[in-house]
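JOB MANIFEST
job_type = single_chain_structure
chain_count = 1
residues = 443
[input]
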Amino acid sequence: HQMLVKPGRQLELLDAYGGLTDQRKSFSELLSLFREVDRKLAKLEESIETRKRERELASFQRDEIDKAKVSLEEQKALKEELALLENSERISETVSAILAGLEGDDRSVSSAGGQGATVLGTLGSLRKLAAALSGITGKASPMLAQLDEARFTLEEVVSGLRNLDASIEHDPERLEQLRDREDELYRLKKKYGPEIGDVLAFRDRVDRLLREGERAENDLETLGSERDALSTRLEQEAKQLTCARKAAARKLEKEMSKRLASLGMPSGRFEVSFKEPASEDIEQEYLTSGADRITFLLSTNPGVPLMPLSDVASGGELSRIMLAIISLLARVGTSSTMVFDEVDSGIGGKVGGMVGLYLGEIAETNQVLVVTHLAQIASCADDHLIVEKFSHDEHTETVVKMLDQEHRPREIARMLGGDSESETLLAHARQMLERTQKGASSR
């Protein structure tokens, strides 16, 4: 019966009495789900906060690379254009020198026949000689053709050089732009390289990191919504459970008042006190059993205020209160093994008889062991065991034995306070046993 003073056990008894066990289990499962989602949410929030600076840096790095519009093709083209602009004067001078050597200019015209000493000029003179030779012998014709081919090739070289010379720009502003761009790419390669390909690979890595962060933010929003929905359901189910418990409590209070009177506490008052959760964060106050904290209160005498059972009830009173509650719970199908000690403390035969009847009700669905010295209670049992102590020399021995139908009336007679061999007492004991057995069979 000591479990009766524990508030948690009191709530279990109230739920069993009110048939709220399934509702309580449903709330417990919902609370477990809520706490799991809440734990995931807290872990995700911590992870997001921890990696916040990392993502901020990654965002800056990705934006820096994207803003630069880096590509593998650009670097090659940049090098070529930069080489042309940086060497434009040298290129122009070299082209001019080659062209002068191939075809000459006004200053290279000689006074001898007006023919400049140039490659093409010389080749032209040689071609005339080869043509004359070819007129003399056909063997010279292939050489003439080769000289024509050489002249054609050199003329193509001249055309190419002129085109190259025309394409060369002396643009200091463009050159400065290209050098700035080269410096920009150099800085990026130094930070994220060493090559442009490495810079682009780095950009892909930080982009994946940022996308993961976006998914985490979405998951956070989803979990937050799920948690809010579960919180609302918890609050609703907790209120429904509280309402059902209060209704069961009022009914239990009335039933208990009747039973306490029949168990030797005619002025006894019984009440179930509900305490509201102290914290504003109700979710932190939930137990697996709900939001309710209850206390069984008792007053055994007129004018005495209601107080918790542990403060006002003696061992015998606790046993009888437990008996009253359990006898009520026997109707709703609870099943267990219970031991009652001191249940007969401070009561007489009439009340003892009622105690025995209630114990009989409980024994219909439970295994009940009762330690008693009261014949009215013992006569209600299905089986009767006697505990005896014997001393032999310096040793003490305790013996427990089952009484048969012959010896049981004698033990009941002895418990009645008289001679166990008295026919009058034996007849009374047999009557008690027969009466209680008939009562048990009629239930």
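[summary]
The first helix runs from residue 7 to 18.
Strands lie at 269-275, 293-299, 307-308, 337-341, 367-371, 385-392, 395-402.
exit_status = 0
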